[in-house]
Amino acid sequence: MKSTVSLLSIALLLASSAQGSQHMHKKHARRQGVSATFSPEPTTTAAVPAPTSKAPGSGPSVIKRGLSFNDASLTKDFSSSQVFFAYNWDSAFQGELPAGVQYFPMLWSAAPEHSNQWEANANAAIAKGSTHLLFINEPDLSSQSNTSPQDAAKQWMQFMQPFAGKATLVSPAITNGGPPMGTGWMDSFIEECDKLGCQVDKIAMHIYDSATNVAYYQKYITDMGTRYNRSVLVTEFGASGSVEQQQQFLQTMVPFLDNLESVSHYAWFMTAVGNLVNADASLSPLGSTYVSA
Predict the structure, then answer these.
(1) What pLDDT does residue 122 have?
(2) How far, in Å, are 19, 74, 165, 200, 261 from residue 231 at the CA level?
(3) Quick one: pLDDT at residue 128?
C-alpha cells in the first residue's frame, strides 16, 4: 500500500495477517509457503456463472495467467491454454504440472534449508525450460522471509546474480503494506542493488484488499511498473469478499492485467480446495472465472 491508502485497506491487511497465520498452520505443511497478508476463506455465497467464451480476437495473444500452489495434483484440470506458469514458493516440487505449463522456481529465503539446494534446483529447472527465477518471499513482513533490503541485495549477488543471462531474474516479492514495507522496502533494495551491480530484470509484488476496491488494485499495479521502469509479476493477488464479489472482481481484473503492458505475469492466491479448485481438483466456479474472464 502507499501512504495514501485508505483506512479500510490498512485494516484489511492487519486483520488478514492474523488470519493468514492461522490458515497456513492448518492447511500448509510449510509455514513459510504462502503470504501472511491474506487468507481467503471458503464461503457459501451463491456464485455467478463463469463466462464461457471471449469474443473472437479479444484479449492478448500471450498468456500471463499463472498458478500458485502447494499441491501440484490440484493443478491437473488447468491447461497450458489457460495458464502459462506455476510456482510453489520453493525451488522444486513433487508431482507434475499440466503439460506445457512452465515452473518458476523460487529461493524463499537465504536460510540454509532453502539456499543449500538452490543452485542445483535452479539449474535443473532452467534445463527443463524455466525462464524466470523468483527471489525471496515478502522480505518486508516479519512472519515471512523477514530480510532487510541491504541483506537482500547481498544475497542477490550471491544466489541470483550468477544466473544473469541464463534466466529472467525477478526481485523479492513485496507486500502492498505502507512504508517501510512495500515500495519503501523495494526502493531501498533497488538503491542497494545499484551500488552492488545487481541485474534485477523484473519486479515481483503481492496485493490484497477488498474485492470492491478494484480502482485501488489497478492504480497500485500500474504505478509499480512506472515506479521501477521494469515489467511486473503480480505473484500473489487476492480479494476479500463473497465468491460472487470475487468473480466480479476477476472479471474486471483479469482483462485489465492481460492488457496492462507493464505486467508480464500474474497469479491468483491460490490453487487450493475451496478457492480455485474443488476437493476432486476440478475447477471451482471461482477457478472457472479465473481462466475464462
Answers:
(1) 98
(2) 31, 29, 17, 10, 8
(3) 97
In 3-state terms the chain splits into helix, strand, coil percentages (rounded to 5) of 40, 15, 45
Would you state the pLDDT for residue 145? Answer: 97
Residue 248 C-alpha cell reads as: 466480479
Can you give the pLDDT at residue 87?
98
CA distance 127 to 150: 31
User: Band of the pLDDT at 38, cuts 50, 70, 90?
Assistant: low
Q: Where are the alpha helices (DSSP H) in 172-234?
A: 182-196, 214-228
The grid coordinates of residue 93 equal 516440487
CA–CA distance from 279 to each of 36, 123, 282 (Å)? 23, 34, 7
From the list 247, 217, 132, 230, the residue with the least C-alpha distance to 190 is 230
Q: What is the pLDDT of residue 22?
A: 29
Whole-angstrom distance, CA of residue 258 vs CA of residue 59: 7
Mean pLDDT of 213-239: 98
Strand order in the sheet with 231-240: 102-103, 85-87, 65-68, 263-268, 231-240, 202-210, 168-174, 132-133
Question: Mean pLDDT over all residues of the chain?
Answer: 86
Residues 141, 177: contact at Cβ < 8 Å?
yes
* 60, 293 Cβ separation under 8 angstroms: no
Q: Would you place residue 60 in the very low, low, confident or very high pLDDT band (cuts 50, 70, 90)?
A: low
Measured CA to CA, the distance from residue 258 to residue 253 in angstroms comes to 8
